[in-house]
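Subject: Protein record for review, amino acid sequence with backbone structure tokens
How to read it: Take the token row as a discrete description of the fold.
Enclosed: The protein record, placed directly beneath this head.
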Amino acid sequence: MRIVVKVGTSTLAHATGRLNVRHVEELVKVLSDLKNAGHEVLLVSSGAIGMGVGKLGLSARPADMPGKQAAAAVGQCELMYTYDKLFGEYNHTVAQILLTGDDLEHDDRRKNFENTLFRLLELGALPILNENDTMATAEIAVGDNDSLAAIVSTCAKADLLVLLSDIEGLYTADPRKDPNAKLIHTVERLTPQIMALGGGAGSSQGTGGMATKLSAAATCTSEGIDMVITNGAKPSVLYDIVEGKPIGTRFLGIKGEHNT
């Protein structure tokens, strides 16, 4: 199985912006084990700006574009250093790919990206992808890593996308406000009622919310790819998700002619 896992800033870092070492170590261990079991794994990792905030000792995430880009430049170094070190302990080689919207919207550049991706998988590497926050501006930004993960999943012809978030999945209402909100385990079709359940942005360190996750689900399911939203606090749930167990919310890919 070819699996894309997207991990959000809220899973990777504490509210201070500093690395949540326990979560990252557990995530790397599980992904390494899934790879050892024969699965192909791609990781879409947020966290560059958040880690840069912590590394630079800033009190808050910068509001201006140059400030965000500077934080991303510092944070991306620490992020990849950490992944390289931890995956190396399990004898896995990582590769960094940084993308902007331009890279994905231009046919030639997108094809080059796809060719590189498939060759890395052939070589047994574990691609780690992120938006190129140091270069991206409002005009060329993908915007959030939920959308990036969905695009990567379609480019990679993945079987499954898992979004690790700070929420258990899609609920009938906002569980932070409504105690009667119920978790929706399976979504067979993205109806207007389901899409209406999307909210605003999530944590103070991240950029994504449920609306971006539902948009990602629309991108994936239309290409026949299953997508799961679940809480990233316990990366071991990835074992159950890969086995098809009811963890979080699973959006079922539409199986059609494009998958034959």
